[in-house]
Amino acid sequence: MTVTRRTFLMQLAATSGYTAAAAAMTTLGLGAPTIASATGQTPPLQLAPGSGKGVKVLVLGAGIAGLVSAYELRKAGYQVQLIEARDRVGGRNWTIRNGTRIELNDGTTQVADFEPGHYFNAGPARLPSHHQTILGYCREFGVELEAEVNTSRSAYFLPDAAKGGQPIQLRRAVNDARGHVSELLARAASKGALDQELSADDRARLVEFLKVYGDLTANAEYKGSERSGYKVYPGAAEKVGERNEPLPLEALLDPDLWTALIFDELLIFQPTMLQPVGGMDRIPHAFHERLKDVARLNTEVKAIRNKDKGVDVVVRDRASGKQQTLSADYAIVTFPLPVLAQVETNFAPDVQQAISGVHYDTASKIAWQSRRFWETEAQIYGGISVVKAETALIWYPSGGFHKKTGVVVGCYNIGQAARDFTVQPLSAQFAVSRGVIDRVHPGRGAELKNPVSVAWHKVPYSLGSWVHWVTPAEKEYTRLNQPEGRVHFAGEYLSQIGAWQEGAALSAHHAIAAIARRVAA
Amino acid sequence: MTVTRRTFLMQLAATSGYTAAAAAMTTLGLGAPTIASATGQTPPLQLAPGSGKGVKVLVLGAGIAGLVSAYELRKAGYQVQLIEARDRVGGRNWTIRNGTRIELNDGTTQVADFEPGHYFNAGPARLPSHHQTILGYCREFGVELEAEVNTSRSAYFLPDAAKGGQPIQLRRAVNDARGHVSELLARAASKGALDQELSADDRARLVEFLKVYGDLTANAEYKGSERSGYKVYPGAAEKVGERNEPLPLEALLDPDLWTALIFDELLIFQPTMLQPVGGMDRIPHAFHERLKDVARLNTEVKAIRNKDKGVDVVVRDRASGKQQTLSADYAIVTFPLPVLAQVETNFAPDVQQAISGVHYDTASKIAWQSRRFWETEAQIYGGISVVKAETALIWYPSGGFHKKTGVVVGCYNIGQAARDFTVQPLSAQFAVSRGVIDRVHPGRGAELKNPVSVAWHKVPYSLGSWVHWVTPAEKEYTRLNQPEGRVHFAGEYLSQIGAWQEGAALSAHHAIAAIARRVAA
């Protein structure tokens, strides 16, 4: 694997939350997973009703893993308390609307100033259709969903400013790339380069296939394609269209472009993707409605101590400052690791080391309110423009089409790039984002209004975005997926679907099932 | 061009309404089109307000072309009457809901029996994002839009029953095809087959590109990809996923499959696609609200006669049977040609010949109400399964996700296939559709309920779907795009965007502009 390819894959992995460790994970021999569905989905968790009677569980943290844990345990009759430090549930599932305060731990405070109805999903913003656990909760709770438009062929790739290139519409990049690839392969086949691999019949079929696949001429040449769009669109009567010239092959061999060409074929980004109507936090709110009587907000966890047959948790009421020790038979800790690292515990050294030793990644997003010029002037309805710039993308809203204004995401960078970017004052970050959008949509930067930024490593009680597991981190992953005394850990970072709500929900199921087995034993 | 390729393209053309004649059209020298937008869109029609004062125009037919004509002419001060034979506006833009009667001219009557809120767009069902004329009217009228999910990677390709194959999930077909193509090309490059085409540097970059593009191994081999999905999805903790095996190259060289691999890259099917919330007929209804006082429904046109300085139109009230002659300065005729062919006219022989000589295509659709098993069991949220069977596709609803039931389209065939299919009794058509759906979704055919079928050549006042222009038909296209006396023709079939509402709207603009020029002269 060359550096280019590795760098590329890491970039993808970070963006997609793809857990690189997955393929190398050792199984723990806890029994083969049961597969219910023909499509390979994990079956819904089934705890016997009443099976938790008389057992007390403290669930620490009301993000998705905590909400799922508390909800499922209660259904099975457990006595549950759900502890959350913030004044809201959801954790990283955070939807920002008019009036939302964003207090970062660098001392900055922002208050969102959006028109009513607008929102910005600062954390997760899409639900892949194969994430059936979290989607199953949406179904169960009646959380209304709509399509999240992750791909628009009218969106752009913006080359690096240093290379001086103009934005390239994705329909051109995607279809011209396929055209060139098809032409080259057809030519190679005709030269005998595939005579060992394919029979004469198959070679002939391959060439016919490539003509269709790449929209080649009868002579198997790529001369451009309607698929790549028009300079002048066709109209009525005699108004024929004027097609875009094909991009030269050389332009497509720029590695900067490659993410834009394939991101929507990554499993995690393939259509159909979904979103709750009105904001991603409709999901945590739906859980919260069902957990109102057991959820304690504004309550920090200061210490977690395993006892012989139970666990003590010291909590502090943020309003009064009063501390209190809660006792339970088990606890499920769903904090991000940098938050858990600040909690006093009597965990074994290897566990403490795992908690403090894993590097937590970050991500930052910027959102703007604006006239929807991307629709009226560029025919972009949702989807993503990929930009070779510090801000990484422009992400257009998937709903509210044709309304006067909308909220557009003008930055979603990750890892070190996000740390470097968010060292700057907010005003400087906003200036960069505005400038990049102005390069893709000339003259429109000036229309962007009321930006807000969320840098996840600066968000109290989050302090990061996800774990970017790499092979050496496996032992921490494995260790934290086992309980420490009466304390079980859960969170997206302990699943093979890191950084996604699906992973958080499945990890919660895993922790619950482990507790249920102990209770039953 | 081999027969295979031509057949394939005709199939595509028919499905997409792509006007094959476009490239060969001769321009008429009426002046270069003005292009307003950087994205090559036709600018909105601009008639001077009051410019039509004192001029009477009869608009015949209240489909999209007629509605657009009447609406724009009125805005410019013309005295307009809009004549429509049906009891509704919209023409082929027809949304079927509970209680809708479908009376076909083969003597059958169906009454849709759907749950409230469900609908079936029997005609157009999607709006490409580059169709800015019809989308512009949606914006102007506040017709609420949502994403139409035209592609789901969880949907299937169903091979021909005679070949005995199982359904293939599209994420596998699409990504394994790309993997194999990438591997073959990388191999050819390494064998020197591209030494003449590319420099050594570019060959090396090409191979790096192909590794990303096709998800190849470090050795540039295709060993399957996560993009093609999992047999067993990954989960929490130790539960790694088990990927699907790659499909063999041979499976992908079956021409039956190729439409499924590329249809969503056809310009007309690329994301983002849109639909009005609640049904496509929200568009004609929005026009109708603004035209109530000039629209006469239930009024058939029996004769059109050019006079020296005007036009007489004989109409018949369908309720009373009473005939009446209307006079105007101009008429715009928007009927489908098979309908116009039945109207008595004094048009010149070449015009009459054009009207009666053009072959009108057809299309048929079947819709079922059902439990949404495609979501709960197959993770399909919208999109299309392509089936190598008489019914051509299964089209899943793009809205109402997670509701208990939905309406799924179980047939959308065209041309001779549709004619042959709809010769059968409805019960036989429904049995075929049910059987095909049952092959893609085993055991679920039995859950399909309350089917309705619309075969467009059997729909009174439509008598077909669109014109499938081929080169020899050019002269009729050109002739009908010119007025005959005081009569102008308009309709999607007179545009380069045949079969689409955009073409109807632009054709209406073309006819209006021609009248405006005559009035101004």
From TrEMBL, chains A, B:
Matches recorded under InterPro entries: Amino_oxidase, FAD/NAD-bd_sf, Flavin_monoamine_oxidase, TAT_signal
Domain Amine oxidase, first and last residues per copy: 64-511
Keywords: Auxin biosynthesis, Signal
Pfam families: Amino_oxidase
Protein species of origin: Duganella alba
Signal peptide feature range: 1-21
GO molecular function: L-amino-acid oxidase activity; tryptophan 2-monooxygenase activity
E.C. numbers: 1.13.12.3
Native organism taxonomy: Bacteria, Pseudomonadati, Pseudomonadota, Betaproteobacteria, Burkholderiales
PROSITE patterns: TAT
Family: Belongs to the tryptophan 2-monooxygenase family.
Protein's name according to its UniProt entry: Tryptophan 2-monooxygenase
Reaction(s) the record says it catalyses: L-tryptophan + O2 = indole-3-acetamide + CO2 + H2O
Enzyme class: oxidoreductase
Gene Ontology annotations of biological process type: amino acid catabolic process; auxin biosynthetic process
This protein's pathway: Plant hormone metabolism; auxin biosynthesis
